[in-house]
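SAMPLE LOG
Freezer: B-3
Tube label: C17
Construct: single chain, 203 aa
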Amino acid sequence: MTVLFSYRTVCKRLLLAIATLGIPAHVHAGVAPSFDCTHVEAGSIEADICASDDLAILDRQMDEVYRQARQKATDQHPPTLAAEQRGWIKGRNECWKSPDRMACIRDQYQLRIAELQALYRLVASDGPHVYGCDDAPGSEVVITRFKTTPPTLVAERGDSVSLMYLFDGGGVYQGRNETFIEREDAATVTWGYGATPMQCRKR
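STRUCTURE (predicted):
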């Protein structure tokens, strides 16, 4: 005899089975992140990651990239890296305030992964390239590009270092208070908040 169940009946039985097994409803059988999903709080950012294959994949990638960075940081103050990572997790968890939580979480992962890959030289790079600038005699900016997602470059000027991201195809890299606008063998560089742009040429 064929028995037909309504969609509502199937859903109720599925939820009952989940509850019986003691598995939180936000945990699914897809890709697992690097942490245990059975103990995360419902409605948390971790629950969002557990419920999304794409975010779970990014979390696993982050776990691997962070492990590689820790190996590189053995002689570079590893407590600093650990503290920065804790700060990043706190910032990621602030995505609950975003109108698009999933996009916010994804962006946080992609930017942090790219940052670690660039700062710890974990991916292929192009450079260093030296640009002489017109603001003062001997002034120069040294850049190294990295094949991250999104693309990044690390710029050095004197004792200062800036990580910049390329967010479009127009050759505009943006850091915290620095920009590097590339035009063939020349670049316009702004170094510091409110600073006057410098015209620089590749040497």
